[in-house]
Amino acid sequence: MKLAKIIAGVLAACAALIVVPGAADGAAAVPIMPLGDSITQGGSIGGYRLDLGAKLRADGHAIDFVGSLADGPASMPDRDHEGHPGWTIAQIDGSVSGWLNTYHPHTILLHIGTNDMYGSDPAGAPRRLSALVDKITNQAPDTELFVATIIPIRFADQAVRTFNAAIAPDMRAKAAAGKRVHLVDMYPSVAIADLPDGIHPNAAGYSKMATTWYNALKAVPGSIGGDPQPPGDDGACTATPRVVGTPWNGGFQGEVTVANSGTAALDGWTVRFTLPSGQTVSQIWGGTATGTSSVTVENAAYNGALGAGAVTTFGFLVSGPGTASLGAATCTSP
């Protein structure tokens, strides 16, 4: 009897060591913090978090949304976040250190500033956002921080455009300085028609936000698992796209800023990005483009050499139906 018990114990221990195929091979879930205001909270439908989580899980990524709040439908697999309705940049700044210490996010998705636009000091919002980003990157320098331009507000569109125009070069400068800051141009992803109350997206608008976040995350190695992209390596470069000016019926103008984020000079660069189905690059300057939906742009003869910290741009026109939107872009150098 004693021998039988010993054998049974050994068999149980061996069974505990068996790895079940398809269980993500024991990969630890990547903690991702959705951070912001009610647009991040997303009401009862879960906001962009619902579709974004589904897209990432469908790709086989083990992720874990983290935060002190939980919202969304009961069927939503992961409802955690730090989206605080009505909060401003300053309010997020006042609490973010505690959240970083508690949840240790590997990746942060930051969309904040909407409530500042109709507050007492919208002009100071870019400065407050810059300070918040610095606080996060100083406390958690290895965290991948994705900073979005804010989506439109029906009754304050000019204030939003001014804010977005001010934060974009600031975020690019932080990235060029070696911080893990990634600018995400969210503004063109959501149309005014997607905002029933003029501020908050409907399900279709949140789905568009999810796609933009998804494309941005996929463009940064390591942000959702896998080997992280080492900052400051020689030959490293970043590409930050944006929509320029006001789109027209059937097209819009785009621009990509290419930055040398490494410590050595670059001798040429290649940028890749994807346009929505049906859209194509009809004209380009500052580079040579190939491809239709999946676009590859190589430097022109005059702007391929970039010293450490240097930047250049190329511009283009896009033709075709659909939203004027540019997802994340990647940059490589020989």
From TrEMBL:
GO terms (BP aspect): carbohydrate metabolic process
Sorted UniProt keywords: Hydrolase, Signal
GO molecular function, one term: hydrolase activity, hydrolyzing O-glycosyl compounds
Annotated PROSITE patterns: CBM2
Highest taxon of the lineage: Bacteria
Domain CBM2: 230-334
Signal peptide boundaries: 1-23
Parts of the chain that traverse the membrane: none
Family annotation (Pfam families): CBM_2, Lipase_GDSL_2
SMART domains (alphabetical): CBD_II
InterPro entries: CBD2, CBM2/CBM3_carb-bd_dom_sf, CBM2_carb-bd_dom_sf, Ester_Hydrolysis_Enzymes, SGNH_hydro, SGNH_hydro_sf
Name under which the protein is recorded: SGNH hydrolase
Organism, scientific name: Amycolatopsis vastitatis
